[in-house]
Structures are given as C-alpha cells and as structure tokens.
Batch of 4 targets.
Target 1
Amino acid sequence: MEEDQAHSPFAAGRRDLLRKLLVLGAAAPLAGALSGAQAAAAQQYPTLRGSQPPGGLTAQPQGGLASRRQAGLTPQQLAGQRVIFSYPGLTVPAALLQQITAGEAAGVIFFGENISGDAQIASVVGQLRQAQQRSPVSSPLLLMTDQEGGLVRRLPGAPAASEKQIGESANPAAAAGQAGTGAGQNLASVGMNVNLAPVLDVFRKSGNFIDQFQRSYSSKAPTVTSCGKAFITAQQRTGVAATAKHFPGLGAATKSQDTDAGPVTLTVPLATLRSTDEAPYPAAISAGVRLIMASWAIYPALDAAFPAGLSPTVIGGELRGRLGYLGVTITDALEAGALTAFGTSAQRAVLAAQAGMDLILCSARDVTQGQAVTSALASAVGSGQLNPAAFTAAVQRVTALRAVLH
C-alpha cells in the first residue's frame, strides 16, 4: 500500500521483556510464580531462565489477561478488535466515533487527505482516544499511518530520506536507525503508535514496482536485512510499533504489477523466494517487530490459488510455521484490485481471517467498509465458518500488542 526517550539499562531490559512476552500473547505487570507459560518463555528466551524479570514483571499464561479483558464483550465487539477503520477528509465522522465508543474497532489508519498539519491530526487523535476511553475496551487504539520516508510520508518531517537513499548511503544501517528514530518520534508527537513501515522488499530491477518510488533499501538482501532491523529496533524504542511489509516480498514485481490496481502473480522459484525475498524477515522477527503485513500477490511456489494474505499456506505455514513468527499479522488494503476475484470486503475479510491474518485493514476511507467487515467476522464465528479458538488467539495477539503501546 502506498501510500520514551529514556534508555537506562532498566528501561531497556523492561522493553526487551515486554517484547518477548508480547509474542507469547501476554505482556502485563503481574506478580506471581512462574507458570507453565513462563516456563515456555524461559525455554524460548534463555535470558529469562533462572532470573526474575526486571521491574517485577512476570509472564501470564496465554489468554489469561486477554481473556479477562475480553470477558463480557459481545461477538460484534470481539470482531471489532480485529478491524482497522479509515475515513475521508479532515473531520472524523460521527459514525466512526460511535463505532469506537461501542468498543467495535481496533484502530484507525490515516492518509494524506486526513492530515492538514500536526496540530490538526493531534486534535483528531485526541478525539479518537476520548471515544476509546468511553468504550468497554480498555486497550488503546492502534493509530497508524505509512511513514516510510521519502515520497511515502503522511506527516511532514522525518524520515526525509527514502529507503533507497538510505540503502545507498555510506552507512546504510546507521542511516536506517536514524530514520527509524525520526519516524517514531514524529508519529508519537501527534499521538500515533503504529507505523506501517519499513518495507523489506528486495527489488530486482531499477524502476520496478517497489523501486520506482524508492521504497526498497536495496536489490541486495543483506542490505535490506540490516537496514530493516536497524529501522525496526530504533523506531520501537520510541514506543511506536513497526510493521515489516510486504511478506513474502514484492521485489520481483514489474513496474506494471501493482496489487492496488489488479491481480499480480509472481512466479519466483521457492528457493529464490526464501533466499532473497524472505531473507530480511528472520532478522526483523528476532528484533521483535510488532506487526508483519502480507502481500496481495500470488506466489505459485507457495500457493497458486490465493494471494499471500488470503493463504493459510503462506501465513500459517511459511510465516508462522517456517519462520516462527508469533506476533500480529495485518492485511494490506482490503479493497485492493488484486482481490477482485474474492468477493466483497466482508467476504475477503473472512478469507483473510481463515488464512491467519489478525488485523483487517479497511482503508477505503469509508466507515461502512469496516462496519461490514466487523459484522461479517462476528457472523462467521457464530456460524462456525471461523474457528472460535483461532479467532480468540488472534484477538489475544492484538490485545497484547495494544497493551504495550500508548
């Protein structure tokens, strides 16, 4: 889609622990003895083994805190915890404020048309947060935009350099880290807490789909890997979550292969897909990236029938299974032209949820799109079309993410 500055050892240790607990679906300041989930965490993260986490934080069995937060929510409210809304223009529609107050929205994405300046968008964010505080859901909203750098920025200011400029600089990783800090501070200054960046696509040819707007760090996977990790680490230190995209990669797309405009099939051999396109993701995952966005392209080497974000093979098998990602997954724009063969936004959302996508991005600038998706997800759980346990696990991952943001 085109579109806390203290660094003491204690603070760093606390952030690191929260990140580790987040991917397990629990991140809360709770006291108590090690549970089975804590033992699992100690096995997965040896640095936790045999020592009390800093600040008295202890892990909680997956679903404990999240389940208590979900207790008493209606099916419509639970479904809403997986939906990101959008709206047209500079003024938040009353319908969106009502949706948030009812506890039926996970967050909002902002585009250029929603922003006239820092003071204006900060005021909007304040309105949204006030609506959230009146809702039955205690977790903060996910308030996001695309602040990649260069041409793809929704807010004025950092990062000014594009990913390509960073990749071609004298010290790409250092420049990427500075860009990540700048992006995080910029978004945090107006109250946003999620950036749909960095792009981890490894472009093949100059001027192709991802390179034409300088949205890729490099045609070399190691450069993309080091820059992506640096950006993610630096940005998340500011308290703003990073989103690695577009898994498993759009670097092979030609200039005319735009998933926003129509269907795209990338016939990349599996070995190349894994050695080049997916290469930056293990480092991003090890850096604790909070979200990963899936591509809407079809990759016949993995699944010849479904775009990546609608494919259980790609999301459940490749991303979660082979690469071991346990964090939050998010779709690209649900109204994308690449999905014309897959029904309405509501039908696409159910397919995405079946594939393992946690958050559904409704970015048509139309509140009714998100409302239709929320109702469809609730109905699909009620009818058994969506597995209730898997649905609950997705809500728990999103709730855990929101619990560590501001």
Target 2
Amino acid sequence: MTPEQINIAITEAQGFRERGGGPFGIYYDKEDDNRYWVSPEYIEGFKPPWTDFDGTAYYSLPDYCNDLNAMHEAWCSLTLWEHQEFRHELQAVIAYAQEDEEPHKGPCHSVCNATALQRAEAYLKTIGKWNES
C-alpha cells in the first residue's frame, strides 16, 4: 500500500467517511461529528485547523506513516483483544524488516522502537484492512 492509501485506510477505520471533493480536496467526516479531513497537498499555505464560512473546522489528513502521535491515537481505538493481535502483527512486520539487518535484539526492543510506518501496517493488518497490492 502507498502511504496515501495507508493514511486514508486508517482514517476511515477511525470512523471518518468520504464526503466528496471540494476546494481543498477530499473531505472525511465522522457521522456524529463536524470535523473534516483533507489531503495535505490541498492545504499548503494554510495552518489547520481553519474554519469555513459556516463554522465547520477543517484539519489535515493525519500522516500515520510518519507520525507516532497519530499512530498512538489510532492504537488507542483498538480493543484489548486487538491490542494483543496488534503486538503480534507488529512483531511480524519488524521481523520481516530485520531479516537482512543486524542480529535480532529481542522483541521488546524492536516493538518499542518500531517506526510509525511499521505500526500503521500492523494496525491495518490487525483490523483486516491491509492490502498487499
């Protein structure tokens, strides 16, 4: 999956749905909320959040692939059972990435130092939204 596909998939998994296009790109909104997410390339020059004429707040689409804070927010949405599955998926993602690298330092060290991209992949695999294409 591309970084943009990953970011959109996690945003949708967080309960935001595609609302359609507009002057700033694709909007995502939660059914019971009035927050909208837009792709970063459409907000250059703007400092989110900003408001529309009707008071609607706009924020940039989170960069789950590079932002550990955003991934922590996504991780917090998982159930206790999903946290356990996430840990197993993250260990598998890390083990695959370390096959040709330095000797394995142990699962705790690796999980604690996982990148945002590795956490995003494990998150999507945990919730069954990872696409290998």
Target 3
Amino acid sequence: MDKDLIGQRLRQLRLDRGLKQADVARTLEISPAYLNLIEKGKRTVQFPLLWKALQYFGQELEAFMGTLGEKRPDDALAKMLDDPLAQTLDLDPDDIAALKAEPKAATTIAALFHLYKNTRAQLDTAVQKLSAGDVPRMDYAPSDEVRDFLETHRNYFPELEEAALRIRETYKLGRRVLSDQLADVIEKHFGFKVETAPTSEPSTVVRRVDLDRRTVTVFPGLTEQALKFQLGAVAGLFVLDKSGLHDRMVAAAPPRHNETARLIKIHLANYFAGALLLPYEDYFREVQRTKYDVEQLAQIFEASYEACAHRLCNLGDPKRPGVPMHFLRVDIAGNISKRYSATGMKFPQNAGSCPKLAVHAAFLTPSVITRQYSIMPDGSTFFCFAKVITQPLQGSLVRGTTYSIGVGTRAEDARHLVYAQDMPANDLRRTAIPTGVSCRFCERSDCNQRAAPSYKFAFSVDEYTKKDNFFSPLLGGERAERTKLPTVPTPTSGTNGTNGSGGNGHG
C-alpha cells in the first residue's frame, strides 16, 4: 500500500470537510508539521493513527481502502501473496482458496497486511535506540525534529538567501570568496574582530565566538575552504541573532526537546554559509550548465566537494527549482553523520545501513566516483553517486578524517545529472542494484550480504536447508522435506566413531 496514496486520501478527506491542518493535528494529538509530512507521503502512517483519523472523518476502513485503487479482492490478495513477508507464512492452496471464497475478508486482510507493513517502519527509531543502550524515546529525538523541520521547508530559506545576497552586494564579493574577505565582513558589518589562536594552544575546537569580547577566534589547521565555511557560519549566527528568524520559525511549531531549537539555529547558520559562498542564482546557473557535476562546481567556486554537494539540496526556489536530491555522509565503518532526503529515500537512524548502497561501495574505489541505480524493496528506484573525501592529519589518514559523500535523486530525474548520461535505465527492475534501509528492517529474502536477521520476518531455522546467506528467511517451499531417516547404529567401543568437527560457525 503506497503511503503517498494514503496521505493524499487523508488530505482530501480533510479538505472535503473544510478542516484546517492545525485543527486536525490537534485532534489526532500530533504536530501540524508531522500531519503535513503524512499528507505529502513523506511519513508512514501508523495503523492506530490511521484508525483514529478515519474515526474522526467518519470513514469506514473498507471504504477508505477501496478508494486507494485496490477494489478487486483478487488483485489485493495477489499483491499481498506476492510480498516476501507473506511468502514466509507458508500458506497452502487450501488456505488461499478459503480467502478467495470470502471477498470482503480478503480485501480487509490485504488492507490490514499492507497497513501493518507501513507501520513496522515506525519501529526503526525505537529498536535502534534500544540496541544502542539508550533510554528509548517513543517520540522524536532532536535530530528527527530537525530533519522534519528541514523537509517541511524543503530545505530552502529565502530570507537567509536574501540576507546573504545583500552582504555579497554590499562588500562586492565575487564568485570566489576568500577567508580574508569574510573576516573583513565580520569586522565591518557585525563589529567582531577575527583573530587566530596561538599555535601552542592544543585544541579540537576549530572556532569560538566570544560575545563579551566581540571576537571570533579561529584555530590553526583549518584549510582555506574549511575556514571560509566556518566564518560564513559565524556570519549566519549574527544574522539570525539580529533577525530572530530561527526564533520565529521554532515558535510556529514548538519542538518537543530543548536541544532542537539550538540545533535548528546551527543548521540555519550553516545554510547561510552555503548561500554566502555559493549564491543561489550563480550556483543554480552553473549547476544547470554542468549538469550537477559536483567536482567541476567545486573548482568553479573554489569550495569543498562536500559544501557543493550539500548546496544541491538547497535549490528549492519555486521559480528556479533544482532536482530533488538526497544527501548522505558516512565514515568507513558505516556510521551516518549527515543525512537529508528530498526524494523519499529512507536512511537508518544510526549505523548499520545497507552495504549495497553506492555511498558504501565508494570505499572500494576511492579514487573514482561510484555510480549506480538502486531499487528498494517497495520498488522505488534511485540514481546515486558517491565520492570518498579524505583529510589527513600529521600525514596519517587514520589520524585525520575519511568520509564518503553520497548524493542522489529519483531514477526518473537522473537524466539531468552528468553522472548518469552513459548508464542505461530502460529496465531498472532487472538491472538496478537491490538495496534496502538496513538489515534489521529489510524485507529482502534473497540478499547475499545480509548481516543480521530482519525483525520483519520470523527467524525460522532449518538445519537441512542452507541458503547463500545464513540470515536469509526461508520462503514457502524452500524448506527440506521432513522424512524419517533410518536409525543409525551407535558405534561400539573400538570403532572409529569420533567426531572430528571442531567448527561452530554458521557456515
């Protein structure tokens, strides 16, 4: 069952009754921002919430599901039985015939099955927090609230774009901005002096703002590109302090956690830095000309690859929109430190993402850009490209940092990207790389690199049947036939009956 269709139908029910989002959200005890994401198909609807919404709208479940395009019981049942999860139920022909004989029951069971599948996605956050040893929060974590905030605003903030443009025009900043120019802006425009910390002072801090002394201290070791971005972010903090934009935005949709407001301010300050260094109109024009060639954009604007890749996710001006993109930054252990999705692609909360994703495969060939079409278990397809970025410290990569930066879009939009121009896309159901979110929540029953059993399958073991991966679930018909073997006589003393098997692995 497509969550987009459910969200669209709920929105239509609300509009038909002339209800405001805020009023419906209050009744359902969720935030207006969360309801907005549901209606746009960007959030899965938990079954209890859907049931509550249908009761509020006075809508029967069967009638509601019928409006989603699955009116024929046989079609709904066939779609359900084709799902890998349903195949693990091992229904025999008599069971299926009994379901077909009751059309109403078949439609209802299929509807509940698909709603159950959608609801399971909500377990991701809770289970991953439990596995990490944290006290589980069944509501949003601060990072979840920030991500929803960015997605609600399509990661585009025109007031910050305009403020950055005014500063660029006032100080006549060119396409390639220098850190010295930004230090001059901070001193003349905001009245703060930029100074460099003594080299003898060891610290992991890269910059510090002292509001009392009105100084901005930057620490040695930053590259020119990193220094420019940090000074741009500091300028963004000053702009926010003066305009109060972050306070107004947070007040419009109060967060649940105290940390969220400051995290949003940090994100907006970083957004301002991107707008200052990579002005929207000029950057958008070069993006179109180069067909999203991030390496070439980094050379044109003398900015970092990561900053240019991230800026692609800010091109949300309705008059000059860019292609919807997703962004992912991971380390060599698979830990995700940055993520954003305007494409609907899902990422896990913490570590343990799918090893088949391009952003992980990039570590195999760090000197070239990794490109691939991917297909998720629900059939959605994406085009992704990734590059490994290194920053040695004291001549050592281990002492420094190594990240893979992954960027992508929906498969149908890949034609706009230079990276996809020589990659065939005419039969993605067959040629795209099968991927998922993480092993613990993946519905694939045929992945040869599964690292753990999925919570979405019953973990059934058959010692007589071995698949290519120990954790792959057994589907109906894959289990060995149970026949009683003849009794083997027990070896008597003096015979060679010792067991020489010393292994205890999964094989």
Target 4
Amino acid sequence: MKEIGIDHNSHISLSGKIHSELRKLILNGELKAGERLPSEPDLAHELGVSRNSLREAIGLLQKEGLLVKKHGIGTFVTDRYPIIRGGIERLSSIGSFIESQGHSARSEIIRFDQCVCEEKICGFLDLEVGSLVHVLETTKYASEIPVAVCIDFIPKSIVKEIDPERIYNSVFEGLGRHYNIDIRYAECDLIPISCDEVLSMKLNVDAGTSLLLLEQIHYDVLDRKVLYSKSYFPSGKFTFKLIRRR
C-alpha cells in the first residue's frame, strides 16, 4: 500500500482520507476478501499516518461492514459487502440507482454499433430475422469503481439514427428526452452466471466470479418492445432486493 500524504489545504480530515483510501482498496479488490490487515503500528507506518487517525478510519470501515476485527487475531476484510444494495421494483436507470446509494455515477461507452440482430434477440423484440439494431455497450461506475456492464439493443425500426452521446448515461432518459420513446415497464429475468475473461477485465474482477445477469425487455406507452438489455453485476459489488407482499 502506498503512503497516504497529508494535504493541509484539504477540508477532509486525515482519518477521512485514510478511510477513503482504504475503502477504495477494498472495493476495487486490491485488498481481497478475507485478507488480514497489518497490525495498527505497522499499517500506520506503511501509510505514513498517526495510529489515532488510522484507528478512527478503521472504526468507520467496521461500521460500514467492510472490515471485521477478530479479538486476538487481527482485522480482516469482510467476505462480502456490496457497493450498491437496493430494490429493483421501480424501473429506473442504473445511474440513478447508484446515486440514490450516495455514490457518484459515471458511464463509459465501450462500443456503439449497428448490426444485424441475433435470432434470439429478434425473438425477444418481435423483430424479423435479419433486422438491424443499434447496440450500445457501457460500463457503469459507482465512485469510480466499475459495478456493471450493460449491453442495450434498440431496434432501428423504432429509432433510425441514434447519437450515443445522448443516451449513454441513461438509456431511459436519453430515449425519452431526445427520441420521444417513453419506457413504462419491463419484463425481467435475474440469472446467476460465472464471469468470463472478457467481463473480468471490464469489471475488474477475477474470471469465475459470480455475476448477476439482469435481462430485460422494455415496453413503451404504446406497448411496443423498444429495448432489450443485458446488464452484468458482480454479486460482491451489487445486490438486489425484492419486496414481496400478500
């Protein structure tokens, strides 16, 4: 771990800065689940900070569930702690969902293309085989940690031309604001899968990591199938909750 310097012009306390740096190391996987931290004196020396400030930061991380202290053994990174937790009953953009959890949200375009729709996806969208679709693939970040990869398929018969810069932050809002497509509901499947090599690089997780695949067919106010999406979430960074009522 690198030394944490003191910025005397910063309004953030030293303990707050230590907390932020350690939290980032845990969430991006540099400090692995189950890993034991060095002793407080050794870690304080390694980071170049006081033991009191370090102890305060570790206390905050314990309250957040990122660290657990085992008496007589040491302090360990917890096995599981999702960055994003919440329900999926309400249809909203992933960016809005991330921001509702108190994180900054950012999207990054991986690719944008027009191509012939795969037969399976044509079936989902009620398209003739050979129809053209716009394909937008993005990575979603929560406080600069990659938490999802999304692939969206939009029929060219619904929107002839698309500027990806208008929709990549939020396909929902972008289609509504710029292309008059008002998405009202979606049919969803939540499928557990294993991360392959390609997704592991995009999500900064190990190949074989458990992922949740959220497959959705989105309908507009006219009950047209206007969007098919596949969103991949590392289960250790993103968890969903469903509230069921009688």
